[in-house]
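Researcher: I'd like a structural prediction for the single chain below. Treat it as a standalone chain; there are no partners to consider.
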Amino acid sequence: MIKDIKGLHHITSMASDARQNNTFFTETLGLRRVKKTVNFDDPNVYHLYYGDEAGTPGTVMTYFPFPGVMRGRSGVGEVSETQFAVPKGSLSFWQDRLTSKGADNVAADTVFGANCVRFNGPDGEGFVLIEAVDDARKAWTGAGIADSVAIRGFSGAKFRLHETAATAELLGFMGYQRAETEGNVTRFAMPGGNGADTIDLEALPQMPYARQGAGSVHHIAFAVENREKQLEVRKVLMDTGYQVTPVIDRDYFWAIYFRTPGGVLFEIATNEPGFDRDEDTAHLGEVLKLPARYEPYRDQIEAGLTPLAA
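Model: Treating it as a single chain, here is the predicted structure.
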């Protein structure tokens, strides 16, 4: 069994409009844009990162905004819901704020006994704010949102799957423990995790497969402390039969990827070196940062990217 995973690192999705995406996360949800860079495989597209003050693993939502890309189709084989933790007693604030900002399908609900508010992002992506008790993580208080109600980071995520047994076995191998079941959803929790430490598996045997597009989660990343631990995890996964990529340098973390039995793309990402490796913490996300190989083409790349502010 793997013992070095500590919960989520980040979740990466796709969007149809960079400016709309930036406004939603920084102004509506009040997260900090901690990095403005490009898709390392397609430098004509932004890669935007939002999180707490430093972009702490377990708080970071990232997006590839492909201009005008078709909206994804919900289905199985995907991360269907991203779950954020908010302080107890803050949900009325969030319900009012989300409604006033024009978010779709805002509704109060409960999940595994906790009060929550569900809503959709600009591209139809599913989000839920879940009341968390004793979450000691320090919030970023952007867009005039007080610390008493601000988002703390992820609490977890939910997958939609035809069948859950193989993914449940994988999560157990990764250190998660089966916690509880509610209808057709089973929760797995990471003991001693980083706060972003639950995964819910929803069994939907008759649902069609998802089609990726705007609003779809591209991959979900799990956190390990450093490269040494990452290599150990990679070896164990490969010894178990998973096809795992070589280590890839993403400038702010090192990454490996593999496809799960249910179809969801997993990443194992390092907590090092962090988003302050090329910017002072006080100025994260303010200027476009490029991988070294793209720096000679900066003028051309910047000219092709839509400014994030009007």
